[in-house]
Please model this.
Amino acid sequence: DTGVSQNPRHKITKRGQNVTFRCDPISEHNRLYWYRQTLGQGPEFLTYFQNEAQLEKSRLLSDRFSAERPKGSFSTLEIQRTEQGDSAMYLCASILPVNTEAFFGQGTRLTVV
Amino acid sequence: EDQVTQSPEALRLQEGESSSLNCSYTVSGLRGLFWYRQDPGKGPEFLFTLYSAGEEKEKERLKATLTKKESFLHITAPKPEDSATYLCAAKTSYDKVIFGPGTSLSVIP
Model:
């Protein structure tokens, strides 16, 4: 499968714990985006990378959230000290260098109990 | 501020009853307007990209059009399998992709 891959697909964690999600983009896609989506809403922009450089981080993102993309390949999104309000679907998407559409992974569903 | 809105929030159609979904956008230097389909519990699936006003794209029962401020997704003679949430997204001049809230479509047999 050469699509965008996200792991894990589901994560249940206790409030206060740290979690980390991984995204493997389509090879040769140099831009990678992270979104958060809650039920009945559209995806909300969190941050994006061009290669290993993080170009923008949403001001809605608290300091508990951090994302990395070492070597411009896969990316990780970490949430520290999780809260119940962090429960959502976390989506990753990647884009070719040329101006085209974003391709999405299947997402990671986070439930904080 | 860059923004994408969609209407209606939800739409219920009888099978075969054609209709349109609306997407309004306010972005700096539009570099692409995208339509996606999303099924429950899955990631968005790409449908169309539109780049300039007047452009149209078609795929099976779907047709997307673009003006300077809006895009429409026309659904002709829908079938129950067209039931899904349809998302509109705009790419800004600095390559940020912003989504609207989506329209939840239900097609009743």
Summary: Chain B touches chain A through 26 residues (CB under 8 Å). DSSP finds no helices and eleven strands in chain B.
